[in-house]
Design a protein that fits this description.
4 domains; alpha+beta; four-stranded mixed beta sheet; about 425 residues
Length: about 425
């Protein structure tokens, strides 16, 4: 193992009195001190597991849970018209084996984490973990201690290349099993295609492969959703083969309203393509709760090369100006002008005005680009009169405008006109 960065391998295995078919047993050193701070897991069940789900239902709908079992008909009555029967038509992704894949996400873990100090680097002071084991079992274990605690999850799943799938969560289907579930085989297992069937062999095989892949992804995404904070984000890499189905699956698990972006990742071109040389993959990005990101004014920005240079120059200019905003603005403009052509700070030369506390900022148009923006009254803090609404409307919604004003980011004219918003660097 490389000496950089410091890592602590952890492996999963079944407890001594149990057998976990998907676990990876490793020898354990006796009397090995564990110095990392792990939260102890107490109780026989954890968040997201079937028993915990029933306990939650019992708290909110005690009439629907009797002796630890759920009366679905009573629960449907309590939920009213929003509870649709299984036979109701519904929009969304469906596939044979979906219910079993969902059930796998509710099972408790059958293994435990075993520290591996002899394979670790910086065991006493590292805060990093490398966990080896079946990823579904590892996710179940992590859910016990890390529900609602994870900021970012990145998944690079196995792409569905058309070969027989290697994952076996006791739920993937063979071609024959898939044909039986979808009604293409009778009770005796005889394939029923008939002369009128328009199902080509490759289409039937493809459906089976999609089913396997979706059933592999579904329980893992459900548990990943449990792990995320309310402001957490999940990013999943995928190629063209399963992109459309993954998007629908993530809409189902995380909610279409929490979709953030579909980013194209350009890689190397493939010279063996028959029609189009495809060299890109995708990154599907979802928030657990986009509303929480918005309410916390979360903005994702990549720092530009010039930002740190401008920030350091602004500190010097502020001191040289005697901490006077007008003088500092004058000196900052002169500094930018003195830079050679092509310098990043010269190209990014809009940050030159100063707040009374010494922060440098740039002005930004507060009107809606292109027209059609919202129109509403904004009261001037000095005159108490509404300011003139730009012809194209305001750039922000009323709620966002209030946050900008409360954060002191709106620049007011002397009378009633407001045309700019400030952005600090």
């Amino acid at each position: 193992m490389s000496e950089t960065p410091s890592t602590v391998p952890i492996t999963t295995t079944a407890p001594p009195d149990e057998t976990a078919p998907d676990s990876i047993p490793f020898p354990q050193k006796k009397d090995t001190p564990v110095t990392l701070e792990f939260e102890p897991v107490s109780g026989l069940t954890g968040p997201g597991e079937a028993k915990s789900n029933i306990d939650l239902l019992a708290r909110f709908f005690p009439d629907a849970v009797v002796d630890g079992t759920v009366d679905v008909e009573v629960l449907r009555d309590l939920l009213g018209d929003d509870a649709v029967p299984n036979t109701a038509e519904a929009f969304g992704l469906r596939w044979p084996g979906m219910a079993e894949a969902r059930r796998l996400s509710t099972l408790p873990p059958t293994g435990t984490f075993l520290p591996k100090p002899e394979e670790s680097v910086g065991w006493d002071d590292t805060r990093n973990l490398v966990i080896e084991g079946d990823n579904l079992e590892v996710l179940r274990l992590l859910r016990r201690g890390y529900t609602n605690k994870v900021d970012v999850i990145y998944i690079d799943p196995p792409y569905n290349t058309g070969n027989d799938f290697v994952y076996d969560d006791k739920r993937t289907t063979s071609q024959a099993q898939h044909e039986a579930v979808t009604g293409q085989r009778d009770d005796e297992g005889v394939l029923q295609v008939g002369e009128g069937s328009d199902r080509a062999q490759d289409r039937k095989a493809g459906a089976s492969l999609h089913t396997k892949w979706l059933s592999m992804m579904y329980p893992r995404l459900l548990i990943a959703h449990h792990l995320l904070k309310e402001t957490g984000v999940i990013i999943v890499a995928i190629d063209d083969t399963e992109h459309a189905r993954l998007k629908l699956l993530m809409d189902r698990v995380l909610g279409a309203e929490n979709f953030i972006a579909n980013i194209t990742w350009q890689g190397g071109r493939k010279n063996d393509s028959r029609y189009v040389s495809v060299g890109h993959d995708y990154m599907l990005i979802y928030a657990k709760n986009e509303g929480s990101l918005s309410a916390n004014s979360v903005r994702w920005r990549e720092e530009r090369p010039a930002d740190n240079v401008i920030r350091e120059a602004a500190k010097k200019v502020w001191i040289d100006s005697g901490r006077k905003p007008e003088k500092a603005t004058e000196l900052m403009k002169a500094w930018i002008k003195s830079l050679p052509e092509g310098h990043p700070a010269k190209e990014n030369n809009r940050f030159y005005e100063f707040e009374p506390d010494g922060r440098v900022f740039r002005k930004n148009n507060i009107s809606w680009p292109g027209g059609g923006g919202p129109r509403y009254d904004v009261i001037h803090p000095t005159t108490g009169l509404p300011v003139r609404v730009p012809g194209s409307g305001w750039r922000f919604s009323p709620e966002r405008m209030k946050r900008e004003i409360d954060a002191n980011l709106i620049m007011w004219g002397k009378i009633t006109l407001s045309t700019s918003t400030g952005r600090h660097i």
